[in-house]
Automatic annotation (TrEMBL):
<feature type="transmembrane region" description="Helical">
    <location>
        <begin position="44"/>
        <end position="64"/>
    </location>
</feature>
<keyword id="KW-0812">Transmembrane</keyword>
<feature type="transmembrane region" description="Helical">
    <location>
        <begin position="71"/>
        <end position="91"/>
    </location>
</feature>
<protein>
    <submittedName>
        <fullName>DoxX family protein</fullName>
    </submittedName>
</protein>
<keyword id="KW-0472">Membrane</keyword>
<feature type="transmembrane region" description="Helical">
    <location>
        <begin position="103"/>
        <end position="123"/>
    </location>
</feature>
<dbReference type="InterPro" id="IPR032808">
    <property type="entry name" value="DoxX"/>
</dbReference>
<keyword id="KW-1133">Transmembrane helix</keyword>
<dbReference type="InterPro" id="IPR051907">
    <property type="entry name" value="DoxX-like_oxidoreductase"/>
</dbReference>
<keyword id="KW-1003">Cell membrane</keyword>
<dbReference type="Pfam" id="PF07681">
    <property type="entry name" value="DoxX"/>
</dbReference>
<dbReference type="GO" id="GO:0005886">
    <property type="term" value="C:plasma membrane"/>
</dbReference>
<feature type="transmembrane region" description="Helical">
    <location>
        <begin position="7"/>
        <end position="24"/>
    </location>
</feature>
<comment type="similarity">
    <text>Belongs to the DoxX family.</text>
</comment>
């Protein structure tokens, strides 16, 4: 039987890095209007969008490099829960209709990272080895 458990840290690292890169794209859309401006948002950005963007930049970078990944993922997960309940839920219950699926997925992916850690290739691992 194939032992897949040895690959789990690498799969978790891939999930952490890719989710954080996609999350960072939301911040670049807010602040740089790249690759496009956010549809339906007026510029200058409302204060809540600026705060969300700052959280996205900081937590994304921390998760990409794997430094304090659990804390960053927990904060990002909370932001996505708030985004869903404040921005999507008022437009109806069903996530597929209120466009809230990405927020829910980000929320639970980040919750997994917050509980399981960053996996392989994380600065947290090097820091932990240096302290031991």
């Amino acid at each position: 039987m194939l032992d897949t458990s040895k690959w789990t840290p690498y799969a978790l690292a891939a999930l952490r890095i890719m989710a954080a890169l996609l999350f960072l794209e939301h911040a670049t859309m807010k602040f740089l209007q790249f690759p496009a401006p956010i549809q339906g948002v007026s510029y200058p950005l409302p204060a809540i969008m600026i705060v969300a963007g700052v959280i996205e930049v900081i937590t994304s970078i921390l998760m990409i490099v794997g430094y304090q990944a659990r804390i960053a993922a927990f904060i990002a997960s909370g932001e996505m829960a708030a985004a869903y309940f404040m921005g999507h839920m008022p437009h109806g219950f069903w996530p597929s209709l209120n466009m809230g699926e990405p927020a829910i997925l980000f929320c639970f992916v980040f919750l997994l990272i917050a509980s399981a850690g960053g996996g392989a290739f994380a600065l947290d691992n090097a820091r932990r080895r240096a302290m031991a």
